[in-house]
Write a structure and sequence with these properties.
Layout (H helix, E strand, L loop, with lengths): L4 H20 L6 H49 L1 H4 L16 H10 L21 H14 L17 H11 L1 H4 L6 E2 L5 E2 L7 H10 L14 H16 L13 H27 L1
Antiparallel strand pairs: 1-2
Helix pairs in contact: 2-5, 4-5, 4-8, 6-9, 8-9
Organism: Plantibacter flavus
Membrane topology: Multi-pass membrane protein
EC number: 7.1.1.8
Length: 281
């Protein structure tokens, strides 16, 4: 079979054109290097922009923090140094504050217990004398001198923990002083465990980690942050669902309930008996 010279020539021309097309479409050896350089420039530019913004934000935050500490020092000197000393070492009128941390300041000042109004068995809760910003400044200053327990994070104060576990932990660790209904109770020598009804979640947590008055300290080895969150959840649940069985009689337990029955219940029976006897005569 003979081959058509014209067809052969056309085929060779097509192959040559295809090779030329493939060659012309091949990437230049400098293209990869150019793309890499562009990528590095874009990445470096973005990193530089972020670094500059972060670097510019850090001095601002540091300045604000230092300003808060300075304001706290002024407030401390004017309101707290008389009892606790200018160096926080304590005096005969007040204990040392070294190592108590921001949490203790936020609790004591934020509940009005400090500044102390009168000497007594323990500091009572009273109207707060400082603004939230001033309390924050005082806490920042005390923590800057000697670190201690910090103000708790919001994630442990949301009241979304395990209420069942929290109620069990509360009965084991807290109910003997604060009452199983968290209504508070009397202690020795004129001291008392206050009611926990209406107390903010932050102050409950801070009390657990700082141990104010006669309360023991529950650090993270005793009760984990999650356990503390569960206890707060249980307390807030009880606060929203008070005494489902009727009048709580102050939630003071079986003593008050028994006294109520003896005085009013037995008294009513005696009065009724006297009335029936008088009528029969």
């Amino acid at each position: 079979m003979k081959t058509d010279p014209t067809q052969t020539t056309t085929t060779k021309a097509s192959k040559k054109a295809a090779r030329a097309t493939r060659k012309s479409g091949r990437r230049s050896p400098f293209a990869s290097a150019a793309l890499l350089a562009i990528g590095l420039l874009v990445t470096g530019g973005a990193y530089a922009a972020v670094s500059v913004s972060t670097a510019s934000a850090e001095p601002v935050a540091a300045a604000k923090s230092q300003a808060s500490v300075d304001e706290g020092e002024k407030l401390f000197s004017a309101n707290c140094a008389t009892c606790h000393g200018l160096d926080m070492q304590g005096t005969t009128a007040g204990p040392s504050l070294l190592g108590v941390g921001a949490a203790a300041v936020d609790f004591q000042v934020g509940t009005g217990r400090m500044p102390l109004q009168n000497q007594g068995p323990q500091a009572p809760e009273k109207p707060v004398q400082f603004t939230e910003e001033q309390i924050s400044s005082l806490a920042a200053y005390v923590a800057s001198v000697a670190p201690g327990p910090e103000i708790p994070e919001e994630q442990y104060l949301d009241g979304e923990g395990d209420a069942s576990n929290g109620a069990q932990l509360f009965r084991i660790n807290c109910a003997m002083c604060h009452n199983v209904a968290a209504a508070g109770g009397a202690l020795t020598e004129g001291k008392y465990a206050p009611s926990l009804v209406g107390v903010s979640a932050a102050h409950i947590y801070e009390a657990m980690i700082t141990g104010p008055q006669n309360m023991p300290v529950f650090n993270d080895m005793n009760l984990s942050p999650e356990d503390k969150r569960d206890i707060i959840t249980a307390l807030k649940f009880m606060e929203k669902n008070p005494s489902p069985g009727g009048n709580d009689l102050g939630s003071l337990g079986p003593v008050s309930e028994g006294l109520f029955l003896w005085i009013f219940g037995l008294g009513s029976i005696v009065a009724l008996t006297v009335w029936i006897t008088a009528k029969s005569n």
